[in-house]
Fold:
Amino acid sequence: MADSLHRLSGRYQAMNKRRGVLFGGSGLIGGSIIRYFSLKKRGTVDLRAPSSKKVSLKDCEAIQDYLLEVRPEFVINAAIANIIADPELACEINYFGALRIARAAAALKIPYVHLSSAATLPPGENLDEDQSVALAPHLSNYAKSKLMAEMTLNYMAHEHGLDHTCIRLSIVYGKRDNKIQGFHRLLFTIADESMPFLLTRPGVRHSYSNSHKLPYLIHYLLDNRAEFSGKTFNFVDPEPVELADLALTIRKHLGIGRPKKIFMPYWMARSGKRVLQATLRGLTKVGVKGALPPELMFLGAFYRTQTLSCARLQATGFTDPYPLETVYTRLPELIHHYLTRWSRQHLLNRYDRTLEFDLAVREDFTADPLKMFESVVTDASTPYAELKKCRTTEARETGAEPPQQSSP
Ligand SMILES: NC(=O)c1ccc[n+]([C@@H]2O[C@H](COP(=O)([O-])OP(=O)(O)OC[C@H]3O[C@@H](n4cnc5c(N)ncnc54)[C@H](OP(=O)(O)O)[C@@H]3O)[C@@H](O)[C@H]2O)c1
Structure:
């Protein structure tokens, strides 16, 4: 009886779940959103996240067909082309892709949550949502495509009644960055001891965005459309962070000697970058392929302050779920998470074996695979009991299997 009630309530919940579609679910931001709705808010939202292989933002028809099939009540766009994508790809995915989703959302009359970037802003302090750089040919492909998407969505909100919310993120920190970009590239470079000096000026500060908190905002703004519709919000931690201080704090956590507290002047960093670029180009001629980290294309940003105001968001009814959490408070956890992962993937020059979670597994797998195989088949190869139980109950309900005789 209790089992049946539980199943019935599960089905009722499934029927009443709000359905949404997320593009870019395998990325840093998309992964956090999926995790939030599937673990923290389980049972409230049925979030579908097709991979780019299934529905590419380059394919207008695929987007329309998918949305028609799923009939979502909202759509979120966290998809983005590689930061160093050429003009065609950046335009196709970051701009036209966003536009295609917006046109579909406007037609279906559903809210569209669009993730944007501080790359659309100039340097400066306390920048608000009404500011942006001027659209011009010299902008990077990334900044240009993100800015054009923002501008077009605002136009569509006025002209075509698009119900969208644009969230501008600054430097994002959090787990699930498979590409090692932005803040995680800084962490990687320091952990790899490949940053001898500080590539910044004293006092240069930036805003940081916490990917762990972002889904709470998305959930809130989906529930409060009147407050958020047609608007752009900066989503950053209230306190900006000095780049040099952050780099030296990471160094301290890692207990290493680099980077030295010496500030490399911008002209020197820029010349160094050019020399490295030329060297790498030369090396390709003898069959060695190498590339500079993509973040170096934003080298100038390391030397300029850019901080975003969060006053507009603070004036809404949204409350920060973890007000004390900052990039500093999360450093120990993030360092452990990423160093374990990078060490295991042999990405770091300095391979720290103390970071291994389970040395026993490693030892057995490496030195005694037969022992591991025998122990797995003996202890851990039976079908999962819980799933088997569900399957049997379902089969009985649909009449595929006769009811079990009750024991005497
Ligand atoms: N990370 C940051 O520091 C940062 C800073 C500011 C703003 N943002 C913004 O946050 C958003 C998410 O960024 P992220 O860092 O999470 O990106 P990410 O980790 O690089 O992930 C990119 C996502 O886009 C998907 N994608 C790529 N090409 C696609 C296509 N043709 N069709 C459909 N999906 C495609 C990828 O899917 P596949 O894996 O299936 O290809 C992946 O899921 C972006 O709007 C970005 O501008 C990020």
In short: The longest helix spans residues 87-108. Residues 1-170+207-237+308-323 form a domain with the Rossmann fold fold (CATH 3.40.50.720). The two ends are 20 Å apart (CA to CA).
